[in-house]
Amino acid sequence: MKKKILYALAALLIALSVFIVPTVWFKPWSIDHFYTRTFLHFALQRPMMLSSLRILEPMGIDFHNDDLDDVSMAFAQREAKWLSRQLRILRSYDRESMDADERLSYDVLEWFMVDAEQANAYMFHNYPVNQMAGIQSGLPDFMINTHQIGNEGEARDYVARLNQFGRFFSQVNTGLRHRASIGVIPPRFVFEKVLDEVRAFVAHPVAEHPLFVHFKERVEESVPEARREDLLESARSAIADTVYPAYREVIACLEEIQVLASTDDGVWKFPDGEAFYAYQLRHHTTTDMSPDEIHALGLTEIERIQAEIADILTGQGIAFDQVGAALMQLGKEERFLYPDTEDGRAELLRDYQALIDEISAGIDSLFDKRPKAPVEVVPVPHFKEATATVAYYDAPAFDGSRPGRFYVNLRSIEEHAKFGMPTLAYHEAVPGHHFQIAMAQEMTDVPFFRKVIPFTAYTEGWALYAELLAAEAGFEDDPFDRLGYLQAQLFRAVRLVVDTGIHHKRWTREEAIDYMLRQTGMAESDVVAEIERYIVNPGQACAYKVGQLKILALREKAEAALGSSFDIRAFHNIILGNGALPLTILEKQVDRWIADVEPAVPPHPA
Predict the structure, then answer these.
(1) Are 108 and 453 spatial neighbours (Cβ–Cβ below 8 Å)?
(2) 341 has a pLDDT exceeding 80
(3) Where would I find the H helices in 224-341?
(4) pLDDT at residue number 598
């Protein structure tokens, strides 16, 4: 009997080895196991991403919450080699034997991996430290808005992460110096703005520093009083002895490289700069459109949108020479602005939430599926206000502990003219980013990577399409709200021109700012922040209009093919129901849906 048990255990061990060994180290037997292994490797190498997703915490797993990412050059190079191996393994599976849903997962991951492999040729063609969303502000933002402190253990994890700032920024500085050695140096204005930001960041007394103030507030809410002081003293020491010295090293590194900076703003100045920019456009638009084609598309869209704006201005009895100048003047009128006070800013946030609540209650005719996760309106953290965009969205946590968040930048009341607020709320929240991203997270029966994989043209294209959808549904029938909608559409069309102008046609920062001011009439502070954003993130701004126009074209294609059988809610289910997709793959999904819905051609009468 004992021998039989030993034989059975041996057989079980062999069976497990046959399953586990290839799953962990070689080609898994099942492509679903390959998907799981690939995502787990990617996530486990990035503890900050795991903290953001919160997919392990519900299982009581939190080992990652005391660690920061590895941002070293060596790590990036190892990951590049790993990704190439995974792409080869993926392609070794028999795609033709898969069903339609399985092929979709295969195609999405293959597109993503091929794109990432191409990106590895330009691994250091970027600015990790920049004025828009650089790592120097991104890490404190992560600590305050993502790392959760609900008990003593999470508080100690927070302190452990503070104590890693030195290692983290030492790796960042090494990467910055390497980039400078190969000619990848930010324009001069980036150094000026980032140095101002970082110097201000370390000018606070420790007790008044945002990292400590936030920690103290959370500890007082979640930790018994008898154990608080030890935690607070640990945080004080970590900030004084590790965080501040780390940021002073960043300052020294930036001052060292700053002397090499020029006023050349486009990536054309990089080694292989033209090829890099062409890649960035492919990456963000998921198309093969050239810089010149995108530039021309922008000019066409500007002309079309400005013509409609001119008609509305004329209809309202507003005399004007230029559309942009007229919109700028309207945006400064007292009737469209909140008081420049704390009470005024609080009212502005409440009104954004009211806009979201209103449209949420009024779009049943457009959507029969909605995300379960709520969305809330919150201000951009004060230390990010000066250089952050006017608004942005952050996804919910998977465990429900954090809702979707629509961040509003309150640095300037003039950036939130009342007639522009509805469109911004629809873009960032409902039915824009919140609908798309939260619904993707809530998909079932798909590999996990499909819930989180990003494609800019799809995500931003949907959000811009959501603006159009709200306007079509009558939420902006007031002429001035319609102007706000059109100004937002014009803004995204102008992006096509200025992004390609800077990085392909070699425009200066000042030329791009002047062009956007004249064409859009947006607040100057907003325009400056936007143009400086495009400079440090080339190609990203071109994804919005390209994605929106593609989704709209697919809708028109479906309407023409299906006629009375077309259902807008079913169309939106197809667009949103598969997570983010490259535009070419999205079109195939719509074509498949059309073929499934389209009634069969009746037999020809005899």
Answers:
(1) yes
(2) yes
(3) 228-238, 244-258, 273-285, 291-315, 323-331
(4) 72
Task: Give the integer Cα–Cα distance in Å for 462 and 482.
Answer: 19
Predicted confidence (pLDDT) at residue 5 exceeds the cutoff of 60: no
- List the single range of 12-26, 67-81, 91-105, 418-432 with lowest mean pLDDT: 12-26
Strand partners, 407: 378, 392
Q: Is position 125 within any domain?
A: no
Candidate from 3-12, 64-73, 561-570 with smallest mean pLDDT:
3-12
Q: How does strand 375-379 pair with strand 404-408?
A: parallel
Find out whether 501 and 507 touch, Cβ atoms under 8 Å.
yes
Cα separation, 306 vs 22, whole angstroms: 59
Q: Which are the contacts of 125, defined by CB distance < 8 A and separation ≥ 6?
A: 184, 267, 270, 276
Residue 599: φ, ψ to 5°: -65, 145
The string of pLDDT tens digits covering residues 46-57 is: 999 999 999 999
CB 169 within 8 A of CB 246: yes
User: Is 531 among the domain residues?
Assistant: yes
CA–CA gap between residue 363 and residue 27 (Å, rounded): 46
Name 577's Cβ contacts closer than 8 Å, sequence gap at least 6: 369, 439, 443
| Coil/strand/helix, residue 375 | strand
pTM over 0.85: yes
For 273-328, what is each residue's pLDDT tens digit?
999 999 999 999 999 999 999 999 999 999 999 999 999 999 999 999 999 999 99
Question: What average pLDDT score do residues 541-557 get?
Answer: 98
- The answer to whether the peptide bond before residue 454 is cis (omega within 30 degrees of 0) is no
Give the side-chain half-sphere CA count within 13 A for 40: 10
Both tokens assigned to 587: 């079109």
Q: Is residue 167 part of a domain?
A: no
Residues 6 or more apart whose CB falls under 8 angstroms from that of 72 comprise: 171, 174, 175
Alpha carbon distance 463, 427 (integer Å)? 5
Domain assignment of residue 23, yes or no: yes
Residue 234: CB partners within 8 Å, gap ≥ 6? 156, 159
The pLDDT of residue 599: 62
Contact yes or no for 152/231 (Cβ under 8 A): yes
Give the range of the structural domain holding residue 17, as residue numbers without chain letter: 2-44
Give the total number of structural domains in the chain. Answer: 2
Of 508, 539, 570, the one marking the end of a domain is 539
User: Hey, what are 251's tokens?
Assistant: 């300052």
Q: 């294609």: which residue's tokens?
A: 557
> What distance in Å separates the CA atoms of residue 435 and residue 370, rounded to the nearest whole number?
7
> Who has greater pLDDT, 390 or 603?
390
* Encoded tokens for 561: 């093919």
Residue that terminates a domain, selected from 495, 516, 539: 539
What are the distances in angstroms from CA 141 to CA 254, 260, 382, 560, 572?
21, 29, 10, 47, 33
Judge whether 422 and 428 are in contact, CB under 8 Å.
no
